[in-house]
Amino acid sequence: RSLYAIERGASVRLFNVRLVAPFGTQSRHAAVGVNGSMIWVDESRAVRSSAPGLADLSRTHVQDRLDAAAAIDRIQAVCHRGRFYFARSVGSGNARVLVYNLAAQVWESDDLLPSGKTAEQFVLWNIAGASRLLYFAGDCRLFEYEKSGQATDDGASIAFALESGSVHNHMFLPVSAQRVGVVAKAIPATLTTQRVFVEPDATVAGEI
Protein backbone atom coordinates (compact mmCIF):
# COMPACT_ATOMS: atom_id res chain seq x y z
CA ARG A 1 0.00 0.00 0.00
CA SER A 2 3.05 2.27 0.05
CA LEU A 3 6.33 2.55 -1.84
CA TYR A 4 9.57 2.35 0.13
CA ALA A 5 13.22 2.73 -0.85
CA ILE A 6 15.89 0.64 0.88
CA GLU A 7 19.17 2.56 0.91
CA ARG A 8 22.62 1.76 2.25
CA GLY A 9 23.36 3.58 5.49
CA ALA A 10 26.61 4.92 6.92
CA SER A 11 27.60 1.40 7.99
CA VAL A 12 28.06 -1.42 5.48
CA ARG A 13 25.82 -3.58 7.69
CA LEU A 14 22.91 -1.13 8.03
CA PHE A 15 20.25 0.01 5.56
CA ASN A 16 17.76 2.87 5.75
CA VAL A 17 14.11 2.33 4.83
CA ARG A 18 12.56 5.50 3.42
CA LEU A 19 8.91 6.12 2.53
CA VAL A 20 8.77 7.32 -1.08
CA ALA A 21 5.02 7.54 -1.68
CA PRO A 22 1.73 6.59 0.01
CA PHE A 23 0.77 4.57 -3.06
CA GLY A 24 1.47 0.87 -3.42
CA THR A 25 1.17 -1.49 -6.39
CA GLN A 26 -0.42 -4.77 -7.37
CA SER A 27 2.14 -5.25 -10.14
CA ARG A 28 5.54 -6.15 -8.75
CA HIS A 29 7.10 -6.06 -12.24
CA ALA A 30 5.59 -2.66 -13.05
CA ALA A 31 7.99 -0.53 -10.98
CA VAL A 32 11.05 0.94 -12.72
CA GLY A 33 13.81 3.12 -11.31
CA VAL A 34 15.62 5.72 -13.41
CA ASN A 35 17.80 8.73 -12.53
CA GLY A 36 17.06 8.41 -8.82
CA SER A 37 13.26 8.30 -9.17
CA MET A 38 10.63 5.60 -9.64
CA ILE A 39 7.75 5.15 -12.06
CA TRP A 40 5.20 2.44 -11.29
CA VAL A 41 1.58 1.33 -11.70
CA ASP A 42 -0.18 1.87 -8.38
CA GLU A 43 -3.02 -0.12 -6.81
CA SER A 44 -5.65 1.97 -8.66
CA ARG A 45 -3.90 1.29 -12.01
CA ALA A 46 -2.57 4.84 -12.29
CA VAL A 47 1.01 5.37 -13.50
CA ARG A 48 2.82 7.29 -10.75
CA SER A 49 6.16 9.07 -10.61
CA SER A 50 8.12 9.58 -7.40
CA ALA A 51 9.36 12.94 -8.70
CA PRO A 52 8.22 15.98 -6.63
CA GLY A 53 4.44 16.15 -6.61
CA LEU A 54 3.92 12.39 -7.19
CA ALA A 55 2.46 13.09 -10.62
CA ASP A 56 -0.28 10.87 -12.02
CA LEU A 57 0.99 10.31 -15.57
CA SER A 58 -1.90 8.26 -16.89
CA ARG A 59 -5.06 10.05 -15.72
CA THR A 60 -6.91 11.80 -18.58
CA HIS A 61 -4.42 10.28 -21.05
CA VAL A 62 -4.31 6.47 -21.09
CA GLN A 63 -6.18 5.52 -17.93
CA ASP A 64 -8.99 3.83 -19.83
CA ARG A 65 -6.47 1.46 -21.42
CA LEU A 66 -4.90 0.54 -18.09
CA ASP A 67 -8.34 0.05 -16.51
CA ALA A 68 -9.16 -2.43 -19.29
CA ALA A 69 -6.07 -4.56 -18.61
CA ALA A 70 -7.12 -8.15 -17.94
CA ALA A 71 -4.49 -8.97 -15.30
CA ILE A 72 -2.90 -6.04 -13.49
CA ASP A 73 -0.49 -8.30 -11.61
CA ARG A 74 1.10 -9.36 -14.92
CA ILE A 75 1.95 -5.86 -16.16
CA GLN A 76 5.62 -5.67 -17.17
CA ALA A 77 7.57 -2.40 -17.27
CA VAL A 78 11.03 -1.37 -18.44
CA CYS A 79 12.93 1.83 -19.23
CA HIS A 80 14.97 1.82 -22.44
CA ARG A 81 16.61 4.77 -24.18
CA GLY A 82 14.48 7.41 -22.52
CA ARG A 83 11.16 5.61 -22.87
CA PHE A 84 9.03 3.57 -20.48
CA TYR A 85 7.33 0.47 -21.85
CA PHE A 86 4.29 -0.98 -20.05
CA ALA A 87 3.18 -4.38 -21.43
CA ARG A 88 -0.34 -5.37 -20.46
CA SER A 89 -2.91 -8.03 -21.24
CA VAL A 90 -6.10 -7.27 -23.14
CA GLY A 91 -7.14 -10.91 -23.37
CA SER A 92 -4.57 -13.67 -23.36
CA GLY A 93 -1.01 -12.52 -22.66
CA ASN A 94 0.63 -9.09 -22.72
CA ALA A 95 -0.10 -8.25 -26.34
CA ARG A 96 -0.24 -4.43 -25.99
CA VAL A 97 2.53 -2.06 -24.87
CA LEU A 98 2.03 1.56 -23.79
CA VAL A 99 5.07 3.76 -24.50
CA TYR A 100 5.86 6.90 -22.49
CA ASN A 101 8.54 9.38 -23.64
CA LEU A 102 10.38 10.59 -20.56
CA ALA A 103 11.99 13.70 -22.11
CA ALA A 104 8.86 14.88 -23.96
CA GLN A 105 6.57 13.76 -21.09
CA VAL A 106 3.98 12.37 -23.50
CA TRP A 107 2.46 8.97 -24.22
CA GLU A 108 3.79 8.14 -27.68
CA SER A 109 1.94 5.00 -28.65
CA ASP A 110 -0.02 1.91 -27.71
CA ASP A 111 1.82 -0.80 -29.62
CA LEU A 112 0.22 -4.07 -30.68
CA LEU A 113 2.72 -6.93 -30.76
CA PRO A 114 2.70 -9.41 -33.70
CA SER A 115 0.11 -12.15 -33.46
CA GLY A 116 1.04 -14.78 -30.88
CA LYS A 117 3.99 -12.73 -29.53
CA THR A 118 3.35 -11.46 -26.00
CA ALA A 119 5.80 -9.61 -23.73
CA GLU A 120 5.70 -11.68 -20.54
CA GLN A 121 9.11 -10.40 -19.41
CA PHE A 122 11.34 -7.60 -20.71
CA VAL A 123 15.12 -8.00 -20.80
CA LEU A 124 17.67 -5.23 -21.37
CA TRP A 125 20.90 -6.53 -22.88
CA ASN A 126 24.11 -4.95 -24.10
CA ILE A 127 25.20 -6.56 -27.36
CA ALA A 128 28.32 -5.31 -29.17
CA GLY A 129 28.18 -2.06 -27.21
CA ALA A 130 24.53 -1.32 -28.02
CA SER A 131 21.60 -1.56 -25.60
CA ARG A 132 18.88 -3.84 -26.96
CA LEU A 133 15.32 -4.30 -25.68
CA LEU A 134 14.33 -7.97 -25.75
CA TYR A 135 11.30 -9.80 -24.42
CA PHE A 136 10.26 -13.34 -23.66
CA ALA A 137 6.90 -14.60 -24.90
CA GLY A 138 4.68 -16.97 -22.93
CA ASP A 139 6.32 -20.02 -24.56
CA CYS A 140 9.82 -18.75 -23.57
CA ARG A 141 10.69 -17.72 -27.12
CA LEU A 142 12.88 -14.62 -27.30
CA PHE A 143 12.23 -11.58 -29.48
CA GLU A 144 13.71 -8.12 -29.99
CA TYR A 145 11.31 -5.21 -29.58
CA GLU A 146 10.64 -3.16 -32.74
CA LYS A 147 12.90 -5.30 -34.89
CA SER A 148 11.57 -5.06 -38.43
CA GLY A 149 10.27 -8.24 -39.99
CA GLN A 150 10.84 -10.47 -36.99
CA ALA A 151 8.23 -13.21 -36.68
CA THR A 152 10.16 -16.17 -35.29
CA ASP A 153 12.21 -16.94 -32.20
CA ASP A 154 15.36 -14.80 -32.32
CA GLY A 155 17.13 -16.51 -29.46
CA ALA A 156 19.53 -18.42 -31.71
CA SER A 157 20.83 -15.24 -33.37
CA ILE A 158 21.25 -13.13 -30.23
CA ALA A 159 24.64 -13.63 -28.59
CA PHE A 160 24.61 -13.38 -24.81
CA ALA A 161 27.62 -12.54 -22.67
CA LEU A 162 26.71 -13.23 -19.06
CA GLU A 163 28.56 -11.04 -16.59
CA SER A 164 27.99 -11.44 -12.86
CA GLY A 165 29.65 -8.19 -11.83
CA SER A 166 32.05 -7.67 -8.94
CA VAL A 167 31.98 -9.11 -5.44
CA HIS A 168 33.44 -6.61 -2.97
CA ASN A 169 34.86 -7.80 0.33
CA HIS A 170 34.28 -4.84 2.66
CA MET A 171 35.31 -6.71 5.81
CA PHE A 172 38.65 -8.03 4.44
CA LEU A 173 37.60 -11.65 4.92
CA PRO A 174 38.58 -14.47 2.53
CA VAL A 175 36.29 -14.89 -0.50
CA SER A 176 36.17 -18.24 -2.29
CA ALA A 177 34.29 -19.22 -5.49
CA GLN A 178 34.44 -23.02 -5.56
CA ARG A 179 31.85 -23.71 -8.21
CA VAL A 180 30.15 -21.93 -11.15
CA GLY A 181 26.97 -23.32 -12.71
CA VAL A 182 24.20 -22.43 -15.11
CA VAL A 183 20.62 -23.60 -15.66
CA ALA A 184 19.89 -23.95 -19.37
CA LYS A 185 18.06 -26.01 -21.96
CA ALA A 186 19.54 -29.47 -22.52
CA ILE A 187 21.29 -28.82 -25.84
CA PRO A 188 24.94 -29.32 -26.88
CA ALA A 189 26.67 -26.12 -25.79
CA THR A 190 29.75 -24.86 -23.98
CA LEU A 191 29.83 -22.11 -21.39
CA THR A 192 33.25 -20.60 -20.82
CA THR A 193 33.77 -19.10 -17.38
CA GLN A 194 36.42 -16.64 -16.31
CA ARG A 195 37.13 -15.46 -12.76
CA VAL A 196 39.31 -12.38 -12.42
CA PHE A 197 40.91 -11.38 -9.11
CA VAL A 198 41.96 -7.78 -8.55
CA GLU A 199 44.35 -8.54 -5.69
CA PRO A 200 46.37 -10.63 -6.15
CA ASP A 201 46.13 -10.18 -9.92
CA ALA A 202 45.09 -13.52 -11.45
CA THR A 203 42.67 -15.07 -13.93
CA VAL A 204 41.13 -18.54 -13.72
CA ALA A 205 39.24 -19.92 -16.73
CA GLY A 206 37.14 -23.05 -17.12
CA GLU A 207 34.36 -24.62 -19.16
CA ILE A 208 30.95 -26.12 -18.43
Number of beta-strand segments: 14
End-to-end separation = 44 Å
SSE order, one letter for each helix or strand: EEEEEHEEEEEEEEE
Tell me roughly what share of residues is in helical segments.
under 10%
Radius of gyration: 20 Å
Class by alpha and beta content: mainly beta
Q: What characterizes the major β-sheet? A: 4 strands, antiparallel
How many individual helices?
1
Strand arrangement, major sheet: 6-7-8-9
The proportion of residues in beta strands is 35-45%
Molecular shape: globular
**Uncertain parts:** none
Whole-number average pLDDT?
77
Q: What do you see in this structure?
A:
The protein has 208 residues and is an all-beta fold. The protein has one helix and 14 strands, in the order βββββαβββββββββ. A four-stranded antiparallel β-sheet has the order 6-7-8-9, with no helix packed on it. The chain has a three-stranded antiparallel β-sheet with strand order 3-4-5, with no helix packed on it. A three-stranded antiparallel β-sheet has the order 10-11-12, with no helix packed on it. Strand 4 (37-41) and strand 5 (47-49) form a beta hairpin. The model has no long low-confidence stretch (mean pLDDT 77).
What keyword list fits this structure?
208 residues; mainly beta; 4-stranded antiparallel β-sheet; 1 helix
Summarize the structure.
Helices cover 2% and strands 38% of the residues. By secondary structure, the chain is mainly beta.
